[in-house]
Design goal:
The structure is a single chain. 45% of the residues lie in helices and 0% in strands. It has a domain of 73 residues. It starts with a helix and ends in a 17-residue tail after the last helix. It is mainly α. It contains 5 helices and no strands.
Length: 107
């Protein structure tokens, strides 16, 4: 998913949201009935673990900017990751992060 995030974020400006429908279908693979645990931020793998929810956020913002009628819900499995990233965006105290990573969220 990390490589897919790189592709999606790099090609977002050139393509419409309809070009990313196959990517949206990949979210059906997250069929867990409960949210996945938030990764340990001291582990460098946390960036890859948070990639799916970041892709979702990027594509959601693209849908908003194109004012498309597409509706796509966040899978239950990724909800804890979404809330975690949302809290990071709200919190001004990022001193708890020991592994530094950057996630750009266009709001």
């Amino acid at each position: 998913m990390w490589a897919l995030l790189q592709y999606v974020s790099g090609s977002m400006a050139k393509n419409s949201i309809s070009e990313f429908l196959p990517v949206l279908r990949l979210f059906s693979l997250f069929d867990e009935t409960s949210p996945l645990p938030v990764p340990d931020l001291t582990n460098p793998d946390c960036v890859q673990i948070l990639s799916p929810v970041t892709i979702f956020l990027v594509l959601s913002n693209k849908m908003k900017s194109e004012k498309t009628q597409l509706q796509f819900d966040l899978p239950i499995a990724l909800r804890a990751h979404y809330h975690f990233i949302d809290e990071l965006g709200i919190s001004s105290n990022l001193s708890m992060l020991t592994f530094k990573f950057l996630i750009l969220i266009y709001q």
